[in-house]
Amino acid sequence: MEPQPTTFTVSQLNRRARQLLEAHLPLVWVEGEISNFSRPGSGHWYLTLKDEQAQVRCAMFRNRNNLIRFRPENGTHVLVRCRVSLYEGRGDFQLIIEHMEEAGYGALQRQFDELKLRLSKEGLFLDAHKQPLPSLPRRIGVITSPTGAAIRDILSILKRRFPAIPVTIYPSIVQGADAAAQLADTIALANEDARCDVLIVGRGGGSLEDLWAFNEEVLVRAIYASNIPIISAVGHEVDVTIADFAADYRAPTPSAAAEVLSPDRDEFLATFRGFEQLLLETVQRRLQSSTQRVDNLRRQLRHPGERLHHWRQQLQNLQLRLKQSTIVNLTQQQSQLQNLQGKLNQVHPTQQLDQFNLLLDALHQRLHRGMEKIIEQKNDHWKNSAQLLHTVSPLNTLQRGYAIVMDRQQHIVRHTSDATAGDQISAKLIDGSLLCTVDKIIPET
Question: How far apart are alpha carbons 228 and 359 in whole angstroms?
């Protein structure tokens, strides 16, 4: 049995279709011409976008259309960012517009921003890559239309400010589909030519579409790759192109580019005259200094006869001084010789021997007297020592009737406790010793 098909109500079908459209289609950009434009009291906009073959209904709600900076009308060509949806009430396929801009300018501006961002990320606009401009160019190359206003303005400024700078014109178209590629080829040609040390790439003013060649990637990369410094001079001061960011210097106008590269003739001549005056003053000071030096040398210069006479007098003076010095030296040498002879006589061996003999006799006498005195002093000392020794001698004590008692080990017995009954002891007298035996010990009471 075949499954029953799913049955939708009309509202369910429309809702499902809307959900599928909104879920599977992201925000898209759509370009077309406005028709059936209406602005009801709700503030929402309702319109139809069409081209030669189709049309689609659109709605733009009030909270979004308040941000639009231009007034759309029927016939206006626009570029919209929108969501694809479905109006469920009538089942109408429609676009919900989030953003609207005029198609021509807006598309170009979006391309401008996208290319600028991409090249910036690659590093084509970094200051580290930019080359310095020459302070006084040897030759200026101009890449532009040979019949445009830009070349006339550049040549006029250069002729007025500094006509001595030569100019080479590299003709190229500056507008149209082939302009960017031709400008890039001309930059490469100027680099191969290598006659110029700076290039001006530019044109006069115009719309964004007119200046679009200077926003093309091929030209921007050619400017970045150039070995010759490049000044971008496109349009008026308010006109900005991507070539301006890649160039080594951006001039607001072609005339400004010519002024940047050319010194003011009057200022240059004034500076030159200043250097000329400085050089003249320097030369005059050098001449004056040299003249004074020559005058000084002339005053110092003498006749050869005068110089010979001067040196002859000097020679005579030197001879006289040499003679006097020789006599003085001889006299001093003779005096020193006599002094040395007297000193030599004083140190003759015979005289020294006589002096030594006299000294020896004196020493013998001093030695004899010294020895007698020492012996006498020793005898007196001995006598005094003997008398003192006799005074403290035990023998002197023994003469007074005392005795010295000693045990068998010849130790002196001083106390009764040093002996016991039956011990043999000896008593030392003045004329001998007594051997005794201890019968009884009587302690002192």
Answer: 115
Q: How far apart are CA 171 and CA 145, in angstroms?
A: 5
Query: What is the C-alpha separation between 347 and 355, in angstroms, rounded?
Result: 11
User: Contact at 8 Å (CB) between 14 and 91?
Assistant: yes
- CA 350 vs. chain centroid, Å, equals 90
Tell me the DSSP string of 193-208: H---SEEEEEE----T
CA distances to 46, 59, 64, 92, 106 from 43, rounded to whole Å, are 10, 11, 10, 21, 24
The tens digit of pLDDT for each residue in 327-382 reads 888 888 888 888 887 777 766 677 777 778 888 888 888 888 888 888 888 888 88
* 68: DSSP letter: -
Residue 66 φ/ψ region, left for φ over 0, alpha for ψ in the -120 to 50 degree band, beta for the rest: alpha
Q: Choose among 221, 225, 223: nearest CA to 233.
A: 223
**Sequence letter at residue 391:** T
Per-residue burial over 133-171, b if 16 or more Cβ lie within 10 Å, else e, is eeeebeebbbbbbeebebbebbbebbeebbeebebeebe
Query: Dihedral sign, CA of 377, 380, 386, 387?
Result: negative
Instruction: Note the pTM of the prediction, 2 decimals.
Output: 0.47
Dig out the tokens for 225 from the structure. Answer: 């790759």
CA distance 403 to 426: 10
- State residue 216 phi and psi, 5-degree precision: -85, 145
**Whole-angstrom distance, CA of residue 362 vs CA of residue 422:** 74
Output the six-digit token pair for 68: 């639009």
